[in-house]
Design a protein that fits this description.
Elements: E1 2-3, H1 5-15, H2 29-39, E2 41-43, H3 56-62, H4 67-75, E3 85-89, E4 93-97, H5 105-110, H6 118-122, H7 125-138, H8 143-150, H9 166-176, E5 180-186, E6 189-194, H10 195-198, H11 201-205, H12 210-225, E7 228-229, H13 230-236, H14 241-253, E8 257-262, E9 269-272, E10 285-286, H15 297-304, E11 325-330, E12 333-343, E13 348-356, H16 362-379, E14 384-390, H17 394-401
Parallel strand pairs: 1-8, 13-14
Antiparallel strand pairs: 2-4, 3-4, 5-6, 7-9, 8-9, 10-11, 11-12, 12-13
Helix pairs in contact: 7-9, 12-13, 12-14, 13-14, 16-17
Length: 402
């Protein structure tokens, strides 16, 4: 089977949920469940200049929604409303379906001493035991609360990891190894608890063969991507090629993936069995930098001809487009970039800069973008949209907003 580049792009956009109409009424927990089953991960990131990353993909696909729906699904549990999501290293740190937590047990074993700072953790075996004992006694606790309970003195600021103490390093390692997980968050601060107390008993008890677990992850990635190279599939859950390549081969052999050629891609691609290829270009949304459609930058360039890099760590005078730039998807194509900041004090969503991609009409782009910005401002409880001076799109956008 052979796909044109446009057909591959339409397939990818549709697989991420952009080709469907947004709910006519209020977004519900059922909508959230279906969306997560489709895109698999909501990446977590601490930057809150507009809105934190895990909230944004839901807005981009479903429209304005009550963020409390996501918070309850991720960080609370009751008989009436059981936990739907759990945090782990899925792509990066991300929210994923709680039922899929056992698929990453092999990674938890790899991270027995954490993902980073492993030497610190190895030297503090007794501290790990004490942290587990403290959490067992205290219940959900921040690293600071654990330190206070253990009467551990915190260090001063001393480098790029801020003032991360040994207690925080070890607590994070216990989280990475699956001993602890996130019970809740308050002001984005993680409250650790024993995984066996947070996860449903049947989920915590479930064991999945490592080979089967990786196969399931690759299959989930394929469904989320629509059409993908092996490298794309590997990146979605950050798999080692030694794991992903045999899994892809096995899925092709079983008929669950179909190998296809995509014009201009230069590598074999794979479609999930029964995957439809849309004939129409659909999908309009602002995409945060960590949206699953765009978080693997080589794929973004291959699909959309869109070179994208986040410039948070670039000194301001050297930034090309801005600090926190949202690509703008219009009718299934990336047509612009918008540097956004929520100005809480003035009650405005501020467009610091806006830029049209080459080959697209600025007036048409601005008209569609204005509607998306008004919708986002309302969702964030902001009263106005203001426009700065940077970029060729700011003039047409200012006019469209009037």
């Amino acid at each position: 089977m052979r796909l044109s580049a446009d057909a591959a792009r339409r397939t990818a956009v549709a697989a991420q949920g952009f080709a469907e109409s947004k709910p006519a009424g209020a977004v519900t927990r059922a909508h959230l469940r279906r969306l997560v089953s489709r895109i698999q991960v909501l990446q977590l990131d601490s930057v809150s200049v507009a809105v934190r990353a895990h909230y944004a993909p839901i807005f981009s696909r479903l429209g304005p929604y009550d963020r409390e729906i996501l918070e309850k699904a991720a960080w609370s549990h009751s008989a009436k409303s059981p936990r739907l999501l759990v945090e782990y290293w899925a792509h990066e740190a991300a929210l994923m379906a709680v039922d899929d937590w056992p698929l990453l047990r092999w990674r938890m074993r790899e991270y027995e001493h954490g993902r980073w700072g492993t030497e610190i953790v190895k030297k503090n075996g007794r501290l790990a035991e004490n942290i587990v004992a403290a959490v067992t006694e205290l219940g959900p606790s921040t690293a600071g609360q654990i330190e206070a309970h253990l009467e551990v003195e915190r260090p001063g600021r001393k480098g790029p990891w801020w003032d991360r103490s040994d207690t925080k390093w070890v607590a994070e390692a216990l989280w990475s190894s699956g001993v602890l997980t996130t019970s809740t968050r308050v002001g984005f601060a993680r409250h650790y608890d024993l995984s066996e107390r947070v996860l449903p008993p049947e989920v915590f008890a479930r064991e999945v063969d490592d080979t089967e677990a990786v196969r399931q992850l690759v299959l989930r990635a394929a469904g989320a991507l629509g059409v993908a190279t092996e490298t794309d599939l590997r990146d979605y859950f950050r798999l080692n090629p030694k794991l992903s390549k045999p899994a892809v081969a096995a899925l092709v052999a079983s008929g669950e993936l179909e190998e296809v050629e995509v014009d201009g891609w230069g590598a074999p691609a794979y479609l999930p069995a029964g995957q439809t290829v849309p004939r129409r270009d659909r999908g309009t949304a602002l995409l945060c930098p960590f949206d699953p459609l765009i978080f693997f930058r080589p794929r973004v360039e291959r699909l959309f001809g869109f070179h994208y890099r986040i410039e948070i760590y670039v000194p301001q005078p050297k930034r090309q487009f801005g600090y926190y730039v949202w690509p703008f998807l219009l009718d299934g194509r990336l047509v612009g970039r918008v540097d956004l900041k929520a100005e809480r004090a003035s009650g405005a969503l501020n467009v610091v800069g806006a830029f049209t991609e080459p080959g697209h009409d600025a007036g048409y782009v601005a008209g569609a973008l204005a509607g998306e910005l008004r919708s986002m401002a309302s969702w964030l409880d902001l009263d106005d949209v203001t426009v700065g001076e940077r970029g060729d799109l700011v003039g047409p956008l200012r006019k469209a907003l009037r």
